[in-house]
Amino acid sequence: MTTDEHPPDPLIGALIDRKYRVERLLGRGGMGSVYEATHVAIGKRVALKFLAEAEDRDAVRRFQREAEAASAVESAHIVQIFDSGTTEDDRPYLVMELLRGEDLRERINRLGRLSEAEVLHITAQTLRALIRAHAAGIVHRDLKPDNLFLSARDDDSLFVKVVDFGISKVVQNRATPNTLTRHGTVLGTAYYMAPEQAQAFPDIDGRADLYSLGAICFEALTGQPPHDGRTYEAILVKACTQDAPDPREHVPEISEAFARVIRTALARERSERFATAQAFLDALAEGNPDIRTSGAPVPSYHAVPREASSASLTSSGSVVPTLTARPNKSRLVVTAMVASLAAFVATALWLGRPTGTPSGAAASDVSAPIARTTAPSATVAGTALSGTPTSDAAPSIEPIVTPDPSASAHPAPQAKPRPRPTPRPSQPTPQPTPKPGGLGLNPKEP
């Protein structure tokens, strides 16, 4: 069937709840679709996000969680959700602000890597969102470049919007976390996942988000994530057993001060990271006094010239994307049995300890256990990442015992970047190639 033979989208032109006239499709992925729409009473343009799997109770609850979490935090740096409801055929939907610009993933793909000044401002704005979210007891748990939207303003400056709180965790107090994740599973994206999240520790807090933001900074500055590997498991095992490299090993001109901040954020032991998002922001502000007022928009910066690298990201080439479906950036939630990776990490940690020492350095070079990989993103649900692949949606898993935290140790001319090697499955059956990122389904305006 050719493109012209596809049946018309029944939602185009539909009137939702007698209020929202659907105008056109902005993007579609495994979790749902986003459309541009108009509020017929006041003429306001909005984005409507429809859930794809209305019969999946967990998906519906996460969809509702996204609305609740984003609405619970009053921050200009978090995407606004105006309304929610259910269509006549029982499809849940959210009404969000319509954004114009691109997400950070697309910007990195397009430019190769960003300047230190730009990354500083993007990071500071993201931290302001996290300060508010964490104060409200909400941990995002899936910060990644795809979920940081750089909204363009009339003066051509960029304003960071954090999106997609669908797998956020509400911590009512330290003793009673309120989360949709079943005991023994974890959701997140492998390239940006904190070690304690990868091992399914039950007491995840805001420091996991700070680790993710440190990984985002590393990639934005260098064009590659701090940890990479042939499989999803290898990425997570490295994050749990190896210290992140200094970003100056890839880009020597990065300032020592910013590199030190990133290394602190990427500490394997959360007790060695910044205690709060405010502490992270304060560290950025040292020597950068304008950062303290960086609720201000991000100035527009030119591309940073760089040599092409086999580890660089694929260029998207789109300045103001229309959020058409991106097969290799699906908001995949790869699944796996928690104990499998947790046991492997524990083994790696044990073998890496000096004899007779109760604790010590982790193994420096480990290979992950072989497991079936999934759709093309390194987003994971569970920690060992096995499961049957699908093209857009994530496979599901049955969780098993959650590991006890106490038992685990802790300018040349610009060249178009080439895709970097990404995790590959070891099964004989070919699988899609994973990339960092995921289907953000950001409410973008062309």
CATH class of the largest domain: Mainly Alpha
CATH topology of the largest domain: Transferase(Phosphotransferase), domain 1
Count of all domains? 2
Largest sheet: 6 strands, antiparallel
Give the full name of the CATH homologous superfamily of the largest domain: Transferase(Phosphotransferase) domain 1
- Architecture of the largest domain, according to CATH? Orthogonal Bundle
Order the strands across the largest sheet as they lie in space: 1-2-3-4-6-5
Proportion of residues in extended strands: 15-25%
Helix fraction bin: 10-25%
Derived from helix and strand composition plus strand pairing, the structural class reads alpha+beta
Average pLDDT over all residues: 72
Poorly predicted ranges: 173-184, 302-339, 353-379, 381-418, 424-435, 437-441
Query: How would you describe the shape?
Result: globular
What is the number of strand segments? Answer: 16
